[in-house]
Design goal:
This protein is of the alpha/beta class. The protein folds into 2 domains: 12-269 and 357-397, Glycosidases (TIM Barrel), CATH 3.20.20.80; 421-509, Golgi alpha-mannosidase II (Immunoglobulin-like). The chain contains 9 helices and 29 strands. It has helices spanning 2-9, 36-47, 91-103, 169-174, 188-204, 219-226, 271-281, 333-345, 404-416, and strands at residues 27-31, 54-57, 61-63, 79-86, 89-90, 107-112, 116-119, 124-125, 134-135, 180-182, 208-211, 244-247, 267-269, 307-309, 350-355, 363-364, 367-368, 377-378, 381-382, 421-426, 431-436, 440-445, 451-456, 462-465, 472-473, 476-477, 481-484, 489-494, 502-506. The strands form 10 sheets. It has an 8-stranded parallel barrel, surrounded by 5 helices. Strands 20-21-22-29 form a 4-stranded antiparallel beta sheet, covered by helices on one side. Helix 2 runs parallel beside helix 3 (91-103). Bound molecules: ligand QV4 and calcium ion. The site of ligand QV4 has 22 residues, from loops.
C-alpha cells in the first residue's frame, strides 16, 4: 500500500491506465441503456459470481428529451446538466448501484459526455430528463450553469460553425461535432464545472470514466480536467488510487489526429481492433485467421497497455461511428462468438464486452433507417431486464455477456491473466490455435472443412472440460471433454458445421 501511495505521490501516476478492478478480474461489460436498479442486481446475481471486473454505464447526467424521432438512444449524448437524473434512474438509485456493485467487487465506469451540450437545434424549454430549463439557441444551460461565454463559437473558424474537415485538427477540436454545442474546455470555469461533476461521481464510488468524443477535445484540456480529479473513494479503493481513464478516439489512420496524442491522459479505444478482426473472421479481402499470429502491435495497433479493445460498440453495431460493414455484432451470432472468444483469449489490450438490446432493423439502400431506436420501453420508460429460467434475458435485452461461450471466456481471461501467448499453430488458412502459458488453450476452425489434429497445449496432463460447448458442473462436463497427455499434447476434432467451431480449455476447467 505504502509503495502504491509513494508511486502516485511521485507523480508516476501510471494508475490512470489501470482499471482498478479487483485482483484477477480482467474485463468490463457495457450494459448499454440499462437502468441502475437492474445493474445493481446484475452485479450481485451474475457479474460478481462470473468474474466480470466492471460495468460501463450509459451517461448518467441529465440529457435532452428528443421526441422526433421518439426517444432515440443518442439523446443521452446531448447533455442539459450534470444532475444524476436520466431514464436509467435518479441519484439515489445511482448511489445504490455503485455501492452494491463495489461491495461485490464489480466496478462502475461512467460514460462522461464533456465535450459538448445538446445540439444547436435543440430549441428552448424543459424538454429534458430532469425538467431543467435550457435554451440551445442562446447556449444557456442554467442548471449547470453555462452561458454563451462557455462555448467555442468564437474559436471555431469554419463558416458553418461545424467540423467540415477532419484533416484540420483545430476544427475537429474547436468546432461543433454534428451540430453539438462545443464547450470551451480551455476555460478554467468550464474545466471546473466538468471536474465538479466527475468528482461528485468519484466520491460516490465510481472507478473511472469513458471520455466521450475525446478526439474533439485538446489533449491538454483533458489533462487539465483530470488534474482536478479526486483520488478514488477509500471505502473501496487503496489510498491514492486514480480514476481509470479510457478516451474515445476513433483513429483508423489517415486523419490529422492520432490516438497517441492522448496516451498521456489514459487508455484509448483501439477501433482498428474490431474493424480488422471482423474482416478476418468474415474472411473478407483474402484475410485468414492464420494471419492473426502477430495480432496486436504487429497489426499496427497502439501499445497493448494503452489499448481499450472491443469487437463492437454501441455506435458501430448500428452503423454509427467507425468500423463499417466488417463489424461483427450479436446479429451475426456464430461469428460474433468466435471473435469475442478470440479477443478474450488473446493477451492484447483491456477488453470490453458489449451487451445490447434488440431493435427492429430496417435496411433501405443498405442503411438501417431504424438505427436511432432507443432501448426497450413502455411509453418511454425503459423496460426492466427480466431473466428467463434458462438465464437469458427477456424484454428484448440481448445480454451477450450471459451467452455461455462469452461468459466462460471472461473467466478464461481471468485464469490466464499474465500468462504468455505461446504454442501458436495454424493450417495456413482459418484453422488456428494458441495457448496462454500453462493455464489455457484455444482452437478455432473457421475453414469450410473439418479440423482434426494433435496439438501441443502447454497444459498439464488431465481431462479438461471445453468451456465453449459446455460447463464444468459438480466435477463433470456438460460439453466436449479434451484429454491432455502428460507431454501436453491433445487431439482436437472440430467440424466446420459445429454450432460453435471452437474449443477452449483452461486450468479451472480441468476435471
Ligand atoms: C443534426 C445534423 C447537424 C445539425 C444538428 C442540429 O446532423 O448537422 O447541426 O442536427 O442540431 C444526433 C443526430 C444528428 C444531429 C445531432 C445534433 O444523429 O443528426 O445533428 O444529434 O442534434 C451520438 C450519435 C449521433 C448523435 C449524437 C448526439 O452517434 O448521431 O447526433 O449522439 O445525439 C465521430 C466522433 C465520435 C462519435 C462518433 C459518433 O469522433 O466521438 O462520431 N462517437 C461518440 C459517441 C456517440 C455520440 C457522440 C460521440 C456525440 O460514441 O454515440 O454520437 O456525443 O466519429
Ligand atoms: Ca470540442
Amino acid at each position: 500500500m505504502k509503495f502504491f501511495v509513494l508511486l502516485s505521490a511521485l507523480g508516476l501516476c501510471w494508475a490512470q491506465y489501470s482499471p482498478n478492478t479487483q485482483q484477477g478480474r480482467t474485463s468490463m461489460v457495457h450494459l448499454f441503456e440499462w437502468r441502475w436498479v437492474d445493474i445493481a442486481k446484475e452485479c450481485e446475481r451474475y457479474l460478481a459470481p462470473n468474474g466480470f471486473g466492471g460495468v460501463q454505464i450509459s451517461p448518467p447526467n441529465e440529457n435532452i428529451v428528443v421526441n422526433n424521432p421518439s426517444r432515440p438512444w443518442w439523446e443521452r449524448y446531448q447533455p442539459i446538466s450534470y444532475k444524476i437524473c436520466t431514464r436509467s434512474g435518479n441519484e439515489d438509485e445511482f448511489r445504490d448501484m455503485v455501492t452494491r456493485c463495489n461491495n461485490v467487487g464489480v466496478r462502475i465506469y461512467v460514460d462522461a459526455v464533456i465535450n459538448h451540450m445538446c445540439g444547436e437545434g435543440g430549441g428552448a424549454g424543459t424538454s429534458s430528463t430532469c425538467g431543467s430549463y435550457f435554451n440551445a439557441g442562446n447556449r444557456e444551460f442554467p442548471a449547470v450553469p453555462y452561458s454563451g461565454w462557455d462555448f467555442n463559437d468564437g474559436k471555431c473558424r469554419t463558416s458553418s460553425g461545424g467540423i467540415e474537415n477532419y484533416n484540420d485538427a483545430y476544427q475537429v477540436r474547436d468546432c461543433r461535432l454534428t451540430g453539438l454545442l462545443d464547450l470551451a474546455l480551455e476555460k478554467d470555469y468550464v474545466r471546473t464545472q466538468i471536474a465538479n461533476y466527475m468528482n461528485h461521481l468519484i466520491d460516490i464510488g465510481v472507478a473511472g470514466f469513458r471520455l466521450d468524443a475525446s478526439k474533439h477535445m485538446w489533449p491538454g484540456d483533458i489533462k487539465a480536467v483530470l488534474d482536478k480529479l479526486h483520488n478514488l473513494n477509500t471505502k473501496w479503493f487503496p489510498g491514492g488510487s486514480r480514476p481509470f481513464i479510457f478516451q474515445e478516439v476513433i483513429d483508423l489512420g489517415g486523419e490529422a489526429i492520432t490516438s497517441s496524442e492522448y496516451f498521456g491522459n489514459g487508455r484509448v479505444t483501439e477501433f482498428k481492433y474490431g474493424a480488422k478482426l471482423g474482416t478476418v473472421i468474415r474472411r473478407w479481402n483474402g484475410e485468414k485467421m492464420a494471419y492473426l499470429k502477430n495480432w496486436g502491435e504487429g497489426w499496427g495497433f497502439m501499445p497493448s497497455d494503452r489499448a481499450l479493445v472491443f469487437v463492437d460498440n454501441h455506435d458501430n453495431q448500428r452503423g454509427h461511428g467507425a468500423g463499417g460493414a466488417s463489424i461483427l455484432t450479436f446479429w451475426d451470432a456464430r461469428l460474433y462468438k468466435m471473435a469475442v472468444g478470440f479477443m478474450l483469449a488473446h493477451p492484447y489490450g483491456f477488453t470490453r464486452v458489449m451487451s445490447s438490446y434488440r431493435w427492429p432493423r430496417n435496411f433501405v439502400n443498405g442503411q438501417d433507417v431504424n438505427d436511432w431506436i432507443g432501448p426497450p420501453n413502455n411509453n418511454g420508460v425503459i423496460k426492466e431486464v427480466t431473466i428467463n429460467p434458462d438465464t437469458t434475458c427477456g424484454n428484448d435485452w440481448v445480454c451477450e455477456h450471459r451467452w455461455r461461450q462469452i461468459r466462460n471466456m471472461v473467466a478464461f481471461r481471468n485464469v490466464v491473466d499474465g500468462q504468455p501467448f505461446q504454442n501458436w499453430w495454424d493450417n495456413g488458412s482459418n484453422q488456428v490455435a494458441f495457448g496462454r502459458g500453462n493455464k489455457g488453450f484455444i482452437v478455432f476452425n473457421n475453414d469450410d472443412w473439418s479440423l482434426s489434429t494433435t496439438l501441443q497445449t502447454g497444459l498439464p496432463g488431465g481431462t479438461y472440460c471445453d468451456v465453449i460447448s459446455g460447463d464444468k458442473i459438480n466435477g463433470d462436463c456438460t460439453g466436449i471433454k479434451v484429454y491432455v497427455s502428460n507431454d501436453g499434447k491433445a487431439q482436437f476434432s472440430i467440424s466446420n458445421s459445429a454450432e460453435d467451431p471452437f474449443i477452449a480449455i483452461h486450468a479451472d476447467s480441468k476435471l
